[in-house]
Every structure is written in structure tokens, then in C-alpha cells.
Write a structure and sequence with these properties.
single chain; 24 strands; binds flavin-adenine dinucleotide
Length: about 500
């Protein structure tokens, strides 16, 4: 049988979810040819629209989108707190800042001076639906020249010495690299023989849009009960968790009768569900890929890690994978990458994923319908009322205190660069929009300028002042916005040159 084969691409991406699309944008921005293979034919999915499609973006995701000039497009579609479409927790007089297993903490409790040096007022929050995120990313990807084939799911793959053959939609595709962004049940991960390990589920979670005989029979908000937890927004939006060991999830059809029975059990009321309009289930299964790279196959997003959606962090974690991987894979394809640059993707992102999985497990421990969990809940509730407690939880939930372990040369190395306001009216995030690394020199140091010439095809040297430079004299920022080198005083060229070699490979000429 003749199987049609397409021309080779630098990178094939399985999955046009938010992670696959954002990665495609990153790779294309860096000049790679990219083909995205997406299983679903139809773009529209009601679960990606409001209310269930609502996603909160963390600070690293907001920064990443701003560094690619996508934030303003996302914000145009964001859900304002005052909107009737906003989630119940958004519509409070006191400004909520996040939650741990549903226990809220508030902006007015947070003491941001406890965090590592950062610019004032740089923390924001954005709530937006998945359909909008995907639409913005797909438009950007296609504008950049990414090809997206919908209705063409990856079925299998074959690793070659210098590439991958992918079998999808009855066709054969060749790429130098394949990235599986095909979600939690990733075909790519399984076909590449990558292990997936973690902890089994304790509950089945439900998101359901229903009609109730009496919408006032349930109290709006989030409630812990002796048998589980439910969230209700009138007149018929329900989220609930039933501790059944995850037995119901994907094992039975979701019927009106079942939703009614679970809701009655958890809420302890004789609520009557007259119609089931939309429903889906999920669990707290927390699994992570044992490797993020195997031969010419890489994983990102839910394909690499899954956990309960309760903490609202899966999308943010996946977007972080894409931002970290894009420039490294592009440099590897261009041939400028140092030997282990691509391996640093797993070194940096696997621990991030493991931390988020543990954070989600800790929330499950608090939610169990047991006396000890209720005690734990009351302790955490007290803690979240304190400025120290709220500040700690905000730092974790917003991703502010994230730092890659890139050594101790300077406390800011490994952290996301602050968006310095520059004296010409632009900002560091704006400089990063071309997808290059930036050597930002606040003191016009001649030796740094001449050093940058040696990597002028990969590093853009900028000397300019900033409104508040947090005591820094210069910093080297990777294309993903992570600080690779920083100095508080003039000089340090040797360390800057070492850092440039470590991340961007050989200089064009021998450094002076
Ligand atoms: C109820 C709920 C609430 C959530 N709330 C939040 C939140 O507030 N904040 C947050 O950060 N995260 C949240 N998440 C998690 C978040 O939605 C996911 O982590 C995120 O969608 C992962 O993106 P992805 O691109 O990796 O995978 P997906 O969004 O799953 O996209 C994968 C894509 O791959 C396609 N695909 C599948 N198989 C194949 C194949 N074989 N070949 C080609 N394509 C394939 C799929 O059709 C899909 O388009 C929530 C999740 C749920 C279920």
C-alpha cells in the first residue's frame, strides 16, 4: 500500500492545545519549520468555553505572553471580575488572590517585600477561557507560518538516527524532532516507550452544567462535607468531588441520574436535577513522565505531567515547558547549541513539574472526607489568615518564587527577569519580543559591549538606564526571560562570557 509522505520539517508537534501552539510559535519565531498535527477536526469544544474553560494565568505565564506580545491579545478576551461570566470566587468585594484546596487568601494580606527582589506592582492576574487562549495562539502560529493539520491524529512513530517518522491520519510525516503535546493520554509518550509514574486517584471530580428544579436549594460557593466537596454557582454550574478512588471516571456514561445521586450524597440535600446540559469528569491522578526527551522525541504539557485541576496550575506548567523548550530546540536545530543545552530542558522542567504534582497531592490530603483532614483544613485556614501564610501561599501559587538551579553566582540567576522600565519608554519584556537573548547593560561597560559582539548573532546587547534597576549593573537574559548572569557592579566580564558560552555556544570569534 502506498502511504503518502510529506516533506521533512524541523519539528513535528503532536497536539494543537495551548502548549503545542505556544511551542510552535516559539520555534517558528526562532526560524524553524514546524508542522502541528492535531487529532480533533472541530475547533469548537464547549468545555473550553465559559464557565468550565476558565483558566487563571500565573505570573510566569503572564510574563511569557508579554515577552512575545501576546498578553494584550489575551487580555482583550479576559474575563473581568465584574462580569456575570466570572467564577463565583472572582465576584467578591475583597480581591481574592488564590486558594489552596479551595481555602482562599486575599491580596490585602500579602506582603510582597518578603519575596526576592522584584519591581513594585508587577504582579497581576488574568482569567481567560481556553478557547480564547487557543484562538490567539493559533492565529499567531499561522501568521508566523506554522502549518496546522486538523483531523490528523498521531497514531505511531518510528525513531530514526537523525529524525522521526510519524504516522498520522493515514499519512507519513518526517521531522528532525517530534514533540508530544498531545495531552495526558499522550500517544507520543506511549509510542516512544517513555514511562509515566505517580500516584493513583482518590476521587472522581465532576464539572456539570445542569438545570435544578429549585436553584435555591444549594448554597452558592465551595463547601466541604462529610462525603466530599462541591462548588455551586446559581443557577446550575456545579463542580464536585466524590472520593470513590477515581472509579467512575471514564468507566461509565455520565447521566443525569448519576449527577443527581452524587450531588445529593455530597451536598446532603434532596436536590433534583431536571436536565443535564454538559458534564465531564476528571481525577486527582498525579503522574509524570520519567523522561522528557528520548532520542528525537520530546514531551511538553499534559503529555509530560498530569494532576488534579484543583490547584489550577496544569496549563501554566505546560506553557512554562514550551517557553523553556522552544529556544533550546531551535538552537539545537541551528547547530549553535552547546552539547547539553537540550538536556537542560528536562533538568529544569522535571523538578518544576514534580513540585506542582506534590502541591496538588497536598491539596487532596486536605480535602479527604476524614476527621484528620478537617483538622488540617482548619489549621491551613488559620495560617492563610496571616500575612506570612498568605504571602507564602501566593508565592507558590503564582509561581513567583520559582527559580531554576543554575548555581549561586548571584541570587537573581535562575529567576525570571523583572520587566525593567527603560528610560526610552520601553521595557525588558518588549526587548525580548524578538526571541533573542538580551545583554542589558545599565552602565555602558565597554568590555561587556565587546564581549556581546562575539555572540552578536544570538545575543542582543542593549545599554540603557532603567527607572529602578534593583541594584543591578548588568544582566544576561535568556530568550525565555530567565536570568543567566547578573552583576551588581561594573565588571564580571569573565563570568558573563562563561555564561554566554554555557547557554549560547561557541563565540563567533575568540573572546578578548
Ligand atoms: C476542569 C479543569 C480545570 C482546569 N483549570 C486550570 C486552571 O485554572 N489553570 C491551569 O493552569 N490549568 C488548568 N487545567 C489544566 C489545563 O487545562 C491543562 O493542563 C492544559 O489544557 C494542558 O494543555 P496541553 O496543550 O498540554 O494539553 P491539552 O489541552 O489536553 O491539548 C492536547 C491536544 O492534543 C490533541 N491530541 C490528543 N491526542 C492526539 C494525537 N494522538 N495526535 C494529535 N493530537 C492529539 C488534543 O485534541 C488536544 O487538542 C484545568 C483542567 C481541567 C480538566
Amino acid at each position: 500500500m502506498h502511504i503518502p509522505r510529506t516533506n521533512s520539517h524541523d519539528v513535528l508537534i503532536a497536539g494543537a492545545g495551548p502548549v503545542g501552539l505556544f511551542l510552535a510559535c516559539e520555534l517558528r519565531l526562532a526560524g524553524c519549520s514546524v508542522l502541528v498535527l492535531e487529532q480533533a477536526k472541530d475547533l469548537r469544544n464547549p468545555l473550553k468555553e465559559l464557565p468550565f474553560g476558565l483558566r487563571g494565568l500565573s505570573v510566569p505565564s503572564i510574563d511569557s505572553f508579554d515577552r512575545r506580545d501576546l498578553l494584550r491579545l489575551i487580555e482583550e478576551r479576559a474575563v473581568p471580575r465584574s462580569s456575570p461570566a466570572a467564577a463565583h470566587w472572582m465576584q467578591q468585594a475583597r480581591r481574592p488572590a488564590g486558594h489552596f484546596a479551595g481555602i482562599q487568601f486575599f491580596h490585602d494580606q500579602i506582603d510582597s517585600t518578603q519575596w526576592s527582589p522584584r519591581l513594585p506592582d508587577t504582579v497581576s492576574s488574568v482569567a481567560v477561557d481556553m478557547a480564547s487562549i487557543e484562538a490567539v495562539l493559533a492565529t499567531r502560529a499561522e501568521t508566523l507560518g506554522v502549518e496546522i493539520l486538523r483531523g490528523c491524529g498521531v497514531e505511531n512513530l518510528k525513531q530514526l538516527e537523525l529524525g522521526v517518522t510519524v504516522f498520522a491520519g493515514g499519512r507519513e510525516f518526517r521531522g528532525q524532532w517530534l514533540v508530544g503535546c498531545d495531552g495526558g493520554r499522550s500517544t507520543v509518550r506511549k509510542a516512544a516507550g517513555i514511562g509515566f509514574t505517580g500516584t493513583d486517584p482518590e476521587f472522581t471530580g465532576y464539572s456539570a452544567q445542569v438545570r435544578l428544579a429549585d436553584p435555591d436549594v444549594l448554597k452558592p460557593g465551595r463547601h466541604y462535607t462529610a462525603t466530599g466537596m462541591y462548588i455551586y454557582a446559581a443557577p446550575g454550574t456545579i463542580g464536585m468531588v466524590g472520593f470513590d478512588g477515581g472509579a467512575f471516571h471514564r468507566s461509565h456514561p455520565i447521566t443525569r441520574e448519576h449527577i443527581e445521586a452524587v450531588l445529593r450524597k455530597i451536598s446532603g440535600t434532596e436536590v433534583a436535577v431536571t436536565e443535564l446540559e454538559l458534564a465531564t469528569t476528571w481525577t486527582d491522578r498525579a503522574f509524570q513522565a520519567t523522561e522528557y526527551k528520548k532520542g528525537r522525541v520530546l514531551l511538553a504539557g499534559d503529555a509530560a505531567h498530569i494532576h488534579s485541576p484543583l490547584g489550577g496550575q496544569g496549563l501554566n506548567l505546560g506553557l512554562g515547558d514550551a517557553m523553556n523548550l522552544g529556544w533550546k530546540l531551535a538552537a539545537t536545530i541551528r547547530g549553535t547549541a552547546p552539547d547539553d543545552l537540550l538536556d537542560s530542558y528536562e533538568r529544569e522542567r522535571h523538578p518544576e513539574g514534580a513540585r506542582i504534582l506534590d502541591w496538588s497531592r497536598a491539596q487532596v490530603a486536605l480535602m479527604r472526607p476524614s476527621p484528620s483532614s478537617r483538622v488540617l483544613e482548619s489549621i491551613i485556614r488559620d495560617l492563610l489568615q496571616t500575612p506570612d501564610g498568605a504571602t507564602y501561599f501566593a508565592g507558590r501559587v503564582w509561581g513567583i518564587e520559582s527559580r531554576y538551579d543554575l548555581g549561586d553566582a548571584h541570587p537573581m540567576v535562575g529567576r525570571s527577569a523583572p520587566d525593567f522600565e527603560l528610560t526610552d519608554g520601553t521595557s525588558l519584556n518588549q526587548l525580548l519580543r524578538i526571541g533573542h537573548s538580551i545583554l542589558l547593560d545599565f552602565e555602558a561597560c565597554e568590555s561587556l559591549k565587546s564581549l556581546a559582539r562575539n555572540w552578536s548573532d544570538r545575543i542582543r546587547y542593549v545599554t540603557i538606564g532603567a527607572k529602578d534597576r534593583l541594584g543591578l549593573s548588568a544582566l544576561l537574559v535568556r530568550p525565555d526571560g530567565v536570568i543567566a548572569w547578573a552583576s551588581d557592579s561594573n565588571g564580571g566580564e569573565m563570568a558573563a562570557a562563561n555564561s554566554a558560552s554555557k547557554w549560547f555556544g561557541k563565540p563567533l570569534t575568540t573572546p578578548p
